[in-house]
Amino acid sequence: MLFRSFVINLVTVNVMVRKIYIDYSTFGEKLKKLYRKIERGGAPSVIIGIANGGLNISKPLANWFQCKHIGISIHFYDGEKSAGEPYYAHIPSIPTDWTNILLVDDILDSGTTINYFTERTKLVQGINFKIATLHWNPKGQFGITPDYYVDKKKENTWIVYPWETEFAEKL
């Protein structure tokens, strides 16, 4: 059965928020586009995926690039509710001799997760690591720009990926 992306409109705090549902077929297309962009910039030697959504992207990328892969967890969201501090975070120590690191998440929205990562690891984007994501919000509060991305997130949208519970409930 084939499902395509679709959009649902919601009204939240007097702001119209459009939910954009990305199905697995569309996800696969975006993942291939991201892979080609990264490949043009040079294959990473280590890929770090941020759970939950980033692992769905980072693991296939690590397989394609045949490089080391680790997963980390930084959770600010419980469903659609965001906390000021993560309610759970696990970042193992990153060996200082690792070079050409690619940090991967599904979306770089506010930049809070990446900012937390850099504060905890003291790694610097462009020097120690690069960032890859499917979607990027250019108006994120921390002004972080990924090195590789597929699509810019439109204002007042919420992207729901196929591995998220709400997407499964819509099937």
List descriptors.
alpha/beta; disordered N terminus; six-stranded mixed sheet; 171 residues
Quick take:
By secondary structure, the chain is an alpha/beta fold.
Layout of secondary structure:
Layout: E1 6-12, E2 15-21, H1 24-41, E3 46-51, H2 55-65, E4 68-75, E5 77-78, E6 81-82, E7 88-90, E8 101-108, H3 112-121, E9 129-136, E10 148-152, E11 157-160, H4 165-170
In what range is the share of β-strand residues? Answer: 35-45%
Secondary-structure-based class equals alpha/beta
The global form is globular
Terminal Cα span: 11 Å
By DSSP, the count of extended strands is 11
Order of helices and strands: EEHEHEEEEEHEEEH
Low-confidence stretches: 1-13
Radius of gyration, rounded?
A: 16 Å
The helix fraction, in percent, is: 25-40%
- Overall mean pLDDT score? 87
Number of helical segments with 4 or more residues:
4
Strand order of the largest sheet: 7-4-3-8-9-10
What is the makeup of the main sheet?
6 strands, mixed
Question: What would you note in describing this structure?
Answer:
The protein has 171 residues and is α/β, with parallel strands linked by helices. The protein has four helices and eleven strands, in the order ββαβαβββββαβββα. The strands form three sheets. Strands 7-4-3-8-9-10 form a six-stranded mixed beta sheet, with helices on both faces. Strands 1-2-11 form a three-stranded mixed beta sheet, with no helix packed on it. The chain has a two-stranded antiparallel ribbon with strand order 5-6. A hairpin with a 2-residue loop joins β1 and β2. It starts with 5 loop residues before the first strand and ends with a helix. The N terminus is likely disordered.
